[in-house]
C-alpha cells in the first residue's frame, strides 16, 4: 500500500473510533483510584472539569477561597489515609491553595493539589499569558513531589505517581500541574482506558527490623519511669487497637499530643495528660510514637525536660531522617506504626515488667491535684464569660457526644480548649497542627462533616475564625451539620489593647461587640448570641441535635486572655524582657 493510501485508511479508522479527552482521563483516573470528593474553586481552565466530574458521580465541593478548599482536602487525607484532592485555577488560585499544600506537607497529611495552568510556550517565554506563572517550580520546594503532564496518554501514570507520593512513607502534599491544553487533548478511548493505572498497595506496610525492636524493648524493660508520647502520626496510622493493647499490657503512662488526644480516652487511667510537666521532667525513658521532637515538645531539651543525660529516647516513625533530629535517639524504630506497635507488643511477651508503683503513684497524685485545682474554674457561670467557664460547658458537650468532631483554632481559645476538653475517640480533634496556622477552621469543618458524616463542633477564636469565615456560606449551601462557636473577646488574644499614638485602633483589637451570629443568618443558617455558659451549652446541644448549620457568638470577657495564649514565651520581646 502506498503511503498516501495508508494515511487514508488511518483517517477512516480515526473517524470511526471512540475518543476521550484530557478532562475525562483525569476524572477516570481519579475515580479508578477511589476518589469520591474533590474540594476546589472553579474558573479557567477547570470550570468544565468540575462540571464533568460532578456528572461522572464525583462529589465536587465548591468553596469561596482555595485555601479553605486546600485545608479541607488536607484534613480529608488525614481522616481517611487517602489523598484529599484540591482543585484550583492557575496562578492566583494555585497560590491560594499552596499555603494549604505546604501546611499539609508540614503536618504529614496526604493531599494532592491539582491546578490548571496557562500555555507552557507562553509561560516559559514570559510573554504575559492570562494568569501566567511557572507553578511547578514554585510548588516544588513546598511539597513532597510535583509533576506536570503534557500528554493525555500520561495522565494515568501521573495520577498514580501523585497518589503514591502523597500516601507512601511519610505522608504529605503533592502538586499536579495540568496545563489548559491537556484537558482538550483527545485520544483513542480504548488506548486512554488502558493508559490508566489503578494503584496497588499505595502505602505499603513498612516492617521494622527485628534488631530495632529488641533494642527498643531492652531500653523500655530497663526503664524505671517510662513514658509514651503519641503524636498525630499515631492517630493517622489507624492502629488504634494495637496501640491500646500495647499501653494496657505494658502499663506505661502516656501523653497525647494535641491531635492525638482521644487515640486513647484522655480519661484513661494511664493518661498522664493532667501531669504533663511532671512526666516530661521526670521520665527516664520516653518513647515517641508518631510525634516529632519539634517546638511543641521543646525539642526534647531545656527546662521542660529532665537534666541532660538523664533521659533516653526511643522513637517510632516511618521517616528514618526524623531520628536524632533534636536529641540522640538510643532506640530508633523505623516503620509504620501499626507494624512497629504489633512487633513491640509481640516482643513484650511474658518478660514485661510493669512500671514501678512509685512512678504511677506519683503521676496519679499530681493528676488528682491538677484536676481538683481546675474543677471550680470550669464550673463558674460568670457573664461575660471567661475562657474556663465557656470551656467547662463545651467539655460536657464532648463528654456527652464523644463521636462529634472537634475543630479548634485561636490562641487562648486553642491552648485552653486543648487542656480542658477531654477527647474520647481517635481522630476527633483537628486543629492548627505543627505550624500553629490560623485559617484551618472552616475548611476542616466542611471536610470533617463530609468525610465522616459526624456532627462537627468548631471552637474558634474571633480572629482565627476571620481567616476562613466566608465559608459559612459553603456550610449553609451544603447544609452541613456544623456548629461553630466563636469565642468573641473583641480581638487577638484580648480585646483591651489601646493605641496611645494615634486615633487608629490598637493592632490586636476588633470592632467591639461584633455579632458573628448574624453572618450565619445572612445565608439561612442559625445564629445565636450567648453570654453565659448555661446558654452556651443549651445552644450547642440544640444545634447538634438539629444538625443545622449554626453559629454561636459566645461573648467572652475581653480582658480574660493572655498575650499569645500559652506560647507568649516565643515572642521576641519576652526574650528581651528576660535579659
Ligand atoms: P504531633 O504534632 O502530634 O506531635 P508530628 O506531626 O510532629 O505529630 O509527628 C507525626 C510523625 O508521624 C511524623 O514524623 C511522621 O513521619 C510520622 N508518621 C505519620 N504517619 C505514620 C505512620 N503511618 N507510621 C509511622 N509514622 C508515621
Ligand atoms: C496564618 C498569628 C496566632 S493566634 C492568632 C493569630 C493572628 C489569633 C488569636 O486570636 P483569636 O484567639 O483567634 O481571637 P484568642 O482566644 O486568643 O483571642 N497568621 C497565620 N497564623 C498565625 N498563627 C498568625 C497569623 C496568630
Ligand atoms: Mg479573640
TrEMBL record:
CDD domains: TPP_BZL_OCoD_HPCL (cd02004), TPP_PYR_POX_like (cd07035)
Descriptive protein name: Oxalyl-CoA decarboxylase
Annotated coiled-coil segments of the chain: none
Keywords noted in UniProt: Lyase, Magnesium, Metal-binding, Thiamine pyrophosphate
Biological processes, Gene Ontology terms: fatty acid alpha-oxidation; oxalate catabolic process
rRNA-binding found in the keyword field: no
Gene3D superfamilies: 3.40.50.970, TPP-binding domain
MF-aspect GO terms: magnesium ion binding; oxalyl-CoA decarboxylase activity; thiamine pyrophosphate binding
Thiamine pyrophosphate enzyme TPP-binding domain span: 412-553
Homology family: Belongs to the TPP enzyme family.
Pfam families: TPP_enzyme_C, TPP_enzyme_M, TPP_enzyme_N
Domain Thiamine pyrophosphate enzyme N-terminal TPP-binding: 22-138
InterPro entries, sorted: DHS-like_NAD/FAD-binding_dom, HACL1-like, Oxalyl-CoA_decarboxylase, THDP-binding, Thiamin_PyroP_enz_cen_dom, Thiamin_PyroP_enz_TPP-bd_dom, TPP_enzyme_TPP-bd
Thiamine pyrophosphate enzyme central domain boundaries: 213-344
Cofactor: thiamine diphosphate
Native species: Candidatus Raskinella chloraquaticus
NCBIfam families given in the database record: oxalate_oxc, PRK09259.1
Keyword Magnesium on entry: yes
Amino acid at each position: 500500500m502506498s503511503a498516501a493510501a495508508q494515511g487514508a485508511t488511518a483517517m477512516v479508522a480515526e473517524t470511526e473510533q471512540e475518543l476521550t479527552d484530557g478532562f475525562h482521563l483525569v476524572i477516570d483516573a481519579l475515580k479508578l483510584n477511589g476518589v469520591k470528593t474533590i474540594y476546589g474553586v472553579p474558573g479557567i481552565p477547570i470550570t468544565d472539569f468540575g462540571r464533568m466530574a460532578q456528572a461522572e458521580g464525583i462529589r465536587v465541593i465548591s468553596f469561596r477561597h482555595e485555601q479553605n478548599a486546600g485545608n479541607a482536602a488536607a484534613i480529608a487525607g488525614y481522616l481517611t489515609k487517602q489523598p484529599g484532592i484540591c482543585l484550583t485555577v492557575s496562578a492566583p488560585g494555585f497560590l491560594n491553595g499552596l499555603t494549604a499544600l505546604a501546611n499539609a506537607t508540614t503536618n504529614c497529611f496526604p493531599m494532592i493539589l491539582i491546578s490548571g495552568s496557562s500555555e507552557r510556550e507562553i509561560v516559559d517565554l514570559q510573554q504575559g499569558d492570562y494568569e501566567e506563572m511557572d507553578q511547578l517550580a514554585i510548588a516544588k520546594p513546598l511539597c513532597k513531589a510535583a509533576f506536570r503532564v503534557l500528554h493525555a496518554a500520561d495522565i494515568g501514570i501521573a495520577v498514580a505517581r501523585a497518589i503514591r507520593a502523597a500516601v507512601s512513607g511519610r505522608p504529605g502534599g503533592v502538586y499536579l500541574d495540568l496545563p489548559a491544553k491537556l484537558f482538550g487533548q483527545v485520544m483513542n478511548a480504548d488506548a486512554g482506558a488502558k493508559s490508566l493505572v489503578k494503584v496497588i498497595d499505595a502505602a505499603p506496610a513498612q516492617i521494622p527490623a527485628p534488631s530495632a525492636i529488641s533494642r527498643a524493648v531492652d531500653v523500655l524493660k530497663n526503664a524505671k519511669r517510662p513514658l509514651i508520647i503519641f503524636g498525630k502520626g499515631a492517630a493517622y496510622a489507624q492502629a488504634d487497637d494495637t496501640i491500646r493493647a500495647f499501653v494496657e499490657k505494658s502499663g506505661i503512662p502516656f501523653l497525647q499530643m494535641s491531635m492525638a488526644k482521644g487515640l486513647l480516652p484522655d480519661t484513661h487511667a494511664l493518661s498522664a495528660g493532667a501531669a504533663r510537666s511532671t512526666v516530661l521532667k521526670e521520665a527516664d525513658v520516653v518513647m515517641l510514637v508518631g510525634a516529632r521532637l519539634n517546638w511543641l515538645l521543646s525539642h526534647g531539651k531545656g527546662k521542660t525536660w529532665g537534666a541532660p543525660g538523664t533521659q533516653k529516647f526511643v522513637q517510632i516513625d516511618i521517616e528514618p531522617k526524623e531520628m536524632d533530629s533534636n536529641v540522640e535517639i538510643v532506640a530508633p524504630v523505623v516503620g509504620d506504626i501499626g507494624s512497629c506497635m504489633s512487633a513491640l507488643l509481640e516482643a513484650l511477651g511474658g518478660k514485661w515488667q510493669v512500671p514501678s508503683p512509685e512512678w504511677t503513684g506519683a503521676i496519679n497524685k499530681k493528676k488528682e491535684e491538677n484536676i481538683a485545682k481546675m474543677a471550680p474554674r470550669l464550673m463558674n457561670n460568670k457573664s461575660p464569660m471567661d475562657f474556663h467557664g465557656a470551656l467547662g460547658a463545651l467539655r460536657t458537650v464532648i463528654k456527652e457526644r464523644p463521636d462529634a468532631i472537634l475543630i479548634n483554632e485561636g490562641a487562648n481559645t486553642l491552648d485552653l480548649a486543648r487542656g480542658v476538653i477531654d477527647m474520647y475517640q481517635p481522630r476527633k480533634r483537628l486543629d492548627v497542627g505543627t505550624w500553629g496556622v490560623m485559617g484551618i477552621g472552616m475548611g476542616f469543618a466542611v471536610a470533617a462533616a463530609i468525610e465522616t458524616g459526624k456532627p462537627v463542633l468548631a471552637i474558634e477564636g474571633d480572629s482565627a475564625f476571620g481567616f476562613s469565615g466566608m465559608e459559612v456560606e459553603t456550610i449553609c449551601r451544603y447544609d452541613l451539620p456544623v456548629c461553630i462557636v466563636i469565642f468573641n473577646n473583641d480581638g487577638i488574644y484580648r480585646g483591651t489593647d489601646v493605641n496611645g499614638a494615634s486615633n487608629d485602633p490598637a493592632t490586636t483589637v476588633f470592632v467591639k461587640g461584633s455579632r458573628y451570629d448574624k453572618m450565619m443568618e445572612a445565608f439561612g443558617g442559625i445564629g445565636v448570641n450567648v453570654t453565659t455558659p448555661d446558654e452556651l451549652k443549651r445552644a450547642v446541644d440544640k444545634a447538634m441535635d438539629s444538625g443545622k448549620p449554626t453559629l454561636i457568638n459566645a461573648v467572652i470577657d475581653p480582658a480574660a486572655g493572655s498575650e499569645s495564649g500559652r506560647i507568649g514565651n516565643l515572642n521576641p520581646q519576652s526574650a528581651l524582657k528576660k535579659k
